[in-house]
Design a protein that fits this description.
The complex is a heterodimer of chains A (187) and B (173).
Chain A (H helix, E strand, L loop, with lengths): L1 H23 L7 E9 L3 E7 L22 E13 L7 E8 L6 E7 L7 E2 L3 E2 L2 E3 L5 E7 L2 E2 L8 E9 L14 E7 L1
Antiparallel strand pairs in A: 2-3, 3-10, 3-11, 4-9, 4-12, 5-8, 5-11, 6-10, 7-9
Chain B lengths: L2 H20 L8 E6 L2 E4 L15 E3 L5 E7 L9 E10 L7 E6 L4 E2 L6 E3 L5 E2 L5 E7 L2 E11 L9 E11 L2
Antiparallel strand pairs in B: 1-4, 3-11, 4-11, 5-10, 5-12, 6-9, 6-11, 7-11, 8-10
Chain lengths: 187, 173
Amino acid sequence: MKALLIYIPTLAVTLIGIGIDKTYAQPPGQNTRNHSLTLTINEVVLVDLEPAGSSIPLVAGTPSEAGAPVLEVSDQSSWLNYTSCLAPMSPARSVSVQLTGTLPPGVELQLQVSPSSGAGQGVLGTSAGTVTLSGVATTVISCIGGCYTGNGANNGHRLTYTVLISNYAALEGAGYGPFLISYTISN
Amino acid sequence: MSVKYACRFCLSLSLLFATHVVSYAQPSQQPGLTLSGNWSYTVPATDVTEAGSDFSGTYTSAANQVQIGVSNKNNAEKNGYAWRVSARKMNATWDNTVAIYIRRTSDGAPATNRATTITDGTVYQQITDTDQYFFGGYRGSTGIAIQYELRGVSVVMPAQSYSTTVVYTVTSP
């Protein structure tokens, strides 16, 4: 009995201590939060000619001396601009050119596409150099990746048109045209 | 066992339990943080206005795109209410040529009936992969509005989705 009286108060003190402790204990606050941020870019493809809406008059020059050839005529006032944004697995893009209309007999129309220049950035296309225009679409710029040429004249690829006499015997003295020259950018 | 030795054993055992339990009794002074919202932006195709041009490149979210709340669990007026919020990003598929800027566009509302103070964070600052101080305050506030701005988006980037996680952390100074 004497031993029993000693044990009971000791046990009671221990239990009280546990109860008080649980009242004060609090977990730390959540001090970090986060959220997602997503940016989506879709494919873009645009091409145009500068100056906009211009037509190109090409008039073969008259020689100054009898027996001299007809003077070739050229125009290099036009520029080709494009913007291209590609998905990772998409193939590179190219630009083709096609002539609509029938040229006079003995006459050829050549197009020279210069390398890109100006304010452009990215993977700009590679020029095919000089081609003879026809009714068949012909690639003039290839390997276009994600890029922009810059907008307006003096940006992108300069276009030089040249009228050549391929057969003097077939020439006829008359005006011809207008002819439509179309540029298409595609994958 | 004699009664005397038994008592000493019991007293030692009680003290052991009391000491062990009291060591856990520490009230928390850790500020708490809540957050709502996120931002997902798709560049419109019309953003390129003419062939040869790039994207405009800079895009801004709503002024309250994300809202943050700060609370402090210490109710004692002993500098216990002061807190600081920092921000960083954790890239998943992000392109670091695009910079992310954040700024605070409101003070929010007091979390209690006591006046609050909020300072800094109202000028756009770039967030990086490292925690950087954003804004601080005194006492809890709710609905602190956050605005985002993306800079440097370009057509030379691959056309795809890019994602990151923006992380906010509140601490006591």
